[in-house]
Design goal:
Elements: H1 20-25, E1 30-34, E2 37-41, H2 56-73, H3 79-88, H4 98-109, E3 112-116, H5 122-130, E4 133-137, H6 154-161, H7 168-187, H8 189-204, E5 207-210, E6 213-216, H9 219-222, H10 225-233, E7 238-241, H11 244-248, E8 260-264, H12 267-273, H13 279-286, E9 302-304
Parallel strand pairs: 3-4, 5-8, 7-8
Antiparallel strand pairs: 1-2, 5-6, 7-9
Helix pairs in contact: 5-7, 7-8, 7-12
This protein binds phenylalanine and cobalt (II) ion.
Cobalt (II) ion binds next to helix 6 and helix 9.
């Protein structure tokens, strides 16, 4: 059974695309062999958003997804996200203009958006984050893809990722992540894999503990109606307290809802936990085995031990 799912912009973990829009838009410079086989690499350059080129259908897709998520995210998304949505003046009817959002981002946290055609090579992606530039895919999915898309599009990137860049602590975390990515690249594929898990389980699929209960801050969830409900309300997945090295050992799913969500107490906790130099952490983890996406360990702080109902039995990424 196919479940609604959005993939993070980490090229090396994406299977070859079947998406029509991407095939049309792809101006591949290259294909690269990774441990996942051949993976297309998009043009690395920043492009114009070219707002005038969006069709009525594009704007309608935005409006439909926006309306659905606004409704589902009340009481489910963290307050920081909902407040930032309002501050950014991200409109419900039309695809926003990046330049308008930049004005708010610049004054709040110094970030700006850069339009791209799709997934970027790791070094380009990390370089943008380190420079406080967030790459946003310029095209939006087709009406047939409201629930499922195999790669990030404008809705995921803009609606899911950009609001939290208004939050000073989260904005700094994203920048530090980019700098960490550049360092990990130099250390090799294993370090990169562990760092990518951190992105996956925080930036894409993170939950945060608040006085009012668990809330969503991960973009992969925020842009998916199905997973927004599943991650908080289903008894199937594990919900486990954030623990940096535990998380960096944990494989994940790219083809279904997550088997495990990691819960942070605050963005400050996330930032503080990742402040230290990672080189010794990578060295320590090198000797340790990976954990399956659904594993629960004796030392985990378990908020919910999932029933595992509906879990895929194939190997995790
Ligand atoms: N502190 C990490 C390092 O030295 C960089 C990093 C920061 C990684 C924030 C992730 C998030 O590599
Ligand atoms: Co993403």
């Amino acid at each position: 059974m196919q479940q609604s799912k959005i993939i993070a912009p980490i090229r090396r973990y994406i299977e070859p695309f079947q998406n029509k829009a991407s095939t049309m838009l792809s101006q591949r410079l290259d294909q690269k062999v990774t441990d996942k086989g051949y993976v297309p690499v998009y043009a690395t350059g920043v492009v114009a958003q070219d707002w005038a080129q969006y069709t009525d259908t594009d704007h309608t897709v935005w409006a439909q997804l926006y309306a659905r998520q606004r409704e589902v995210l009340q009481g489910r998304a963290c307050d920081e996200f909902l407040q930032a949505m309002a501050q950014l003046e991200m409109g419900p009817r039309q695809i926003p203009r990046f330049a308008d959002l930049d004005a708010h981002l610049q004054s709040a946290t110094g970030w700006r958006l850069v339009a791209v055609e799709g997934l970027l090579p790791d070094e380009v992606f990390f370089g943008h984050l380190a420079a406080r530039e967030f790459p946003v895919t310029r095209w939006i999915r087709s009406p047939e893809q409201l629930d499922y898309l195999a790669e990030p599009d404008l809705f995921h990137d803009l609606f899911g990722h950009v609001p939290l860049l208004m939050n000073p602590i989260f904005a700094d975390y994203m920048c530090a992540y980019g700098q960490g990515g550049l360092k990990a690249l130099a250390l090799g594929p294993r370090a990169l894999q562990q760092l990518a898990r951190l992105y996956w389980y925080t930036v894409e699929f993170g939950l945060i503990n608040t006085r009012a209960g668990l809330r969503i801050y991960g973009s992969g969830i925020l842009s998916s109606a199905g997973e927004s409900r599943h991650c908080l309300e289903s008894t199937a997945p594990n919900r486990i307290g954030f623990s940096l090295e535990r998380l960096m050992r944990t494989r994940y799913r790219i083809d279904s809802f997550q088997k495990t969500y990691f819960v942070t107490d605050s963005f400050q906790q996330l930032f503080d936990a990742t402040l230290a130099e990672f080189k010794p952490i990578y060295a320590r983890l090198a000797d340790q085995s990976d954990l399956a996406a659904g594993d629960v360990r004796a030392e985990d702080h378990v908020l919910q031990h999932g029933t595992g109902e509906g879990w895929a039995t194939s190997a995790d990424t």
